[in-house]
Amino acid sequence: MRANRLRTIWQSGGAVVNGWLAIPNSFSAETMAHQGWDSLTIDLQHGVVDYQAMIPMLQAISTTDTVPVVRVPWLEPGILMKTLDAGAYGVICPMVNTREDAQKLVAYTHYAPRGTRSFGPVRALLYGGADYPQHANDTIATFAMIETAAALDNLDSILSVEGLDAIYIGPSDLSLALGCTPTFDDLDPKAAEAVDHILARAKAHGVVAGIHNGTPEAALKRITKGFQFVTVSSDARLMAAGAQAVVAKMRAAQAPKTSGSH
Fold it and tell me: Which tens digit of pLDDT belongs to each residue from 47-76?
């Protein structure tokens, strides 16, 4: 079976640099994949990507060594299993709030006897290889999102679930849950403390910690702290930022020159 580079990077003590795909298009996904990201996450939870759009995006990512990851809409077995059958090598599940939620997530993403994943890896066989069924349980990376007050209360019991590879912090949702301003990088003190606490507990349990970031500067600081999976911006945000920079430069050059003399 094709190795999962996420696991290879983690085992070496490194950090995965993850890109985010919000645009439901295979060409934009292919373009992103050719820029050298360690992994790219297709976002089915927020935005405009659906399952049918996801398939050609996964195929486009497969033209490179970039690892395909998918954030599913919810903790629901059908979409988790179909996403893995489509060839995702990692799944990020939102709103995991209890130990029971984490146990369900692990069960839905692993074949028996370790879980209850139904068998039918139609595209996963093409991407992973003919021996996918034998090695999928040890290759796929399963992320639980920690982003609520309930998840914070149940953090240690969630992190102790066997088979959970990683947690992923949504700073905006976590901030909202704590009564703070929703943002990625410059968190209010209460939210920042919660992020540090989650990271420390994840390390204690031997679980990889990941987090969403708005800028490379924020992501690099968080790698220094010990995060091993950092998302930086998204395809839509990067396109908008690039376009804004070009237009701003053009408008500045075209602005009428004001004379200092009369």
Answer: 899 999 999 999 999 999 999 999 999 999
Residue 201's pLDDT is 98
Q: 49 near 56, Cβ under 8 Å? A: no
Extents of the domains making up the chain: 5-253
Give the catalytic positions in this structure.
46
Torsional class of 233: left (φ above 0), alpha (ψ -120 to 50), beta (otherwise): left
Nearest to 141 by CA among 2, 1, 6: 6
Q: Is the dihedral of CA 75, 15, 159, 184 positive or negative?
A: negative
* pTM exceeding 0.70: yes
Total H helices, total E strands in the chain: 13, 8
Tokens 């301003």: give the residue: 181
Task: For domain 5-253, give the CATH superfamily.
Answer: Phosphoenolpyruvate-binding domains (3.20.20.60)
At 207-251, the pLDDT tens digits run: 999 999 999 999 999 999 999 999 999 999 999 999 999 999 999
Question: Which residue in the block uniquely carries the two structure tokens 């920079």?
Answer: 245
